[in-house]
Amino acid sequence: MSDEGLRGPGPNERILPEGRRNDQGIRIDPEAEAEHPPERTLLSALVKNEPGVLAEASGLFSRRQFNIESLTVGRTIDPELSRMTIVIEEPRPGIDQAKKQLEKLIPVVSVRELDADAVQRELVIVKVNGEEPDKVNAITQMYDGETLDAGPRTITVELTGDEQKIDDAIDAYEQFGIRELVRTGYAALARGEAPTARVKQPNKAPTESQVATQEVSDD
Amino acid sequence: MSERASVPKEDEADAEAEPAEDETTDEQPAQTGADAVATALENAGVEYLFGVQGGAIMPVYDALYEHDEMTHITMAHEQGAVHAADAYGIVSGEPGVCMATSGPGATNLVTGIADANMDSDPLIALTGQVPTDLVGNDAFQETDTIGVTQPITKHNIFAQSPDEVGTDVGHAWALANEGRQGPTLVDLPKDVTQTETDVKPGKPETPDTYNPPTEADEVVVEEAAKTLADADRPVILAGGGVIKGEAVDELRQFAREYEIPVVQTMPGTGAFPDDDPLSLEIAGMHGTGYGNLAISNCDVLLGIGTRFDDRLTGGIDSFAPDADVIHVDIDPAEISKNVYADYPLLGDAKAVIRQLDDALERAPDCGDWRDQCDEWKDEYPMDYQTPEDEPLKPQYVVEKYDELTPDDTIVTAGVGQHQMWAWQYWTWKHPRTWVTSHGLGTMGYAVPSAIGAKLAAPDQEVVAFDGDGSFLMTAQELSVAVRENLDITIVVLNNEAVGMVRQWQDGFYEGRRMASEYPWIPQFDKLAEAFGAQGLRLEDYDSVEETIQEARDYDGPSVIDAIIDPSENVYPMVPSGGDNARFALKEDHLEEL
Ligand SMILES: Cc1ncc(C[n+]2csc(CCOP(=O)(O)OP(=O)(O)O)c2C)c(N)n1
Q1: Which residues contact A198 (CB under 8 A, 6 or more apart)?
Q2: Catalytic site positions of B
Q3: Is A197 exposed, middle or buried (0-12, 13-18, 19+ CB in 10 A)?
Q4: By three-state DSSP, how is residue B546 classified?
Q5: How far away, in angstroms, is B421 Cα from ligand 1 center?
Q6: Chain B within 8 Å of A152 (Cβ-Cβ)?
Q7: Helices A133-142 and A163-173 meet at what angle, rounded to 10?
Q8: pTM of this prediction?
Q9: pLDDT tens-digit map of A9-27
Q10: N or C: which end of chain A has fewer CB within 10 A?
């Protein structure tokens, strides 16, 4: 308590540090200053088959404004577990954050980022106008597709493949007039011997991304 | 405080006891899902439950009738129940438990659950739900409580079967408590709690997918220790995790051994004693000038159990811009979320501080830096003016109260200017004595949290600093304090305004005081009397001590309606998103910023 109140030099008279951080909280030096461009990333998560897991995961992504491209989920050979494949497009810090936030959900057993060479497939069902069945059929064969339904007015085909192939096929079908289409989003597994996601052992050991977080990274 | 706060059950039980004794029943009474819930709580060692009755939760209340070891505190509003339980958890360190019925009961808990989530407070909410076969049909008093609370709980569980509900509650308790603490919720459909089960719940356990880290990676610890030893201008930033992780002793010893200055975040307040020469007290928007200058100018920042909230950091670009950041946290997702961590040390704060201590070969050579910090302390003391001819200054009331009470007095607060004055002008010495709504900034927190705090620590004094606006939001909980005869004092720093809003309007909206002035508020001393509490009015400097003493001497809840200078504002202040080194000490500084 005093008669003068707060004192000391005003804001403009203080010596201020010169350094700065970017909006990701990284100190700006010539090396780190570069903005992280968004990357397309495949995440694979093993989750317990509990009601609400999907809502929890998707709610997490929308709440934290992660840019999600596709999310699929289905059973595994273990009846207690499902596998989620998530494609997100985010700068590197966003991808790391997404992984860590996902891993925090209690029903999530494991989260893994897949390499670009992962085996990845999407299924699409396309319904086109049926006036030129032969031509439609030729394109379907060209893209290793299968005709699911053919009538006088519409032909419905199924295709699987990576993004590029599906986009190309859709372009090709465009000439007949696409009436409707549905894409499932990606399913993916790590290539070769690498496991897509390891089940955490209930031994209180740090999880994969926890360990990754502890490594001093120079990037 | 009354022991039998729960239900007026003794009398009734006595009346009914006799005929029951005559019956020679070999048969154990059937156990229901609700009994399993109660047993699971008992197994967890729960002492108090805070809640409000209702249709869908009635089976659980009925089961509690048989559980004398737990005391249920009936609150006036579910928001009161959740804040009381939250404060109970903060002060005791163990999850507080609140309960509510389905629909409106559950939604009334939402604010408090969100509050606990932001502050990582250990809390369990048990909510009634309509019977499973009505779920999804917009039944009477149905709300998708799981859906509503998913984003604001650490985990929530929809109980599906009476055989599993005991485990569900055990999971909820353990998850609320372990790792980074936080709120959990179990939604209890009425049929699940009413149906019989012979499964007896055991001790609470976390699900096996939950593996919080314990010790940090040795290699990173070594690197971090080296960086710290080489620092010229190191600062420790102690967050709420230091207190939650019971690492207060380790932190104090570490800082003193290596003579590193310590700043605290708002939730970390009390982790390090304000009167220690190394203490730079508090940082952030209304932190001390010296605390903020130290962070802005440091070259190594050791942040422990802090999530680098924006009220702490100000604009990220200017936060500790020259510093290598060593970040200790138990939650991997906090690492590099807001501020990039050069040395992430994932683990339990207590264990990691010990690891760092083992790895640190020498103290950093930073005598000059400590001198610099002391200079800033002299230059920018926390201070205010007290002209005799002006109305009472709120800071003076806080300082006097602090002077008159023991060091371990627990202070709760609402949200606004009064909260900041309480934070700034109290001399913090002990952890778990500063109980407020940090992250969510929930007005109305002070009174119910004082109730929860007092029940958690009946031997400690409890004072709630409240604003007139905040007090009006949960004043009805005074009825509970009176019923339970809780010896607490509520000091309403009454400026007839939602003062913090008015301060911003004056500073940043050209003084257009839209909806921030409350000239129609009741006389709070009279209001207190209507509830059966002691009501006191305080208007001038001369009667400050005497009024405080009167409140403290009274055995039961008192309310001091302290009429303060309505023009007093909170300084220092960093405008939101600003540079913490450029704090305003008074009105005209704002123009410079
Ligand atoms: C539930 C809620 N509603 C609105 C706000 C926005 N708000 C923040 S501070 C404040 C003013 C609080 O006024 P009062 O309790 O009288 O305290 P004072 O600032 O006057 O000390 C308001 C309205 C809030 N934090 N919480």
Answers
A1: A110, A112, A208
A2: 78, 140-141, 190, 500
A3: buried
A4: helix
A5: 14
A6: no
A7: 170
A8: 0.93
A9: 899 999 889 899 998 899 9
A10: C
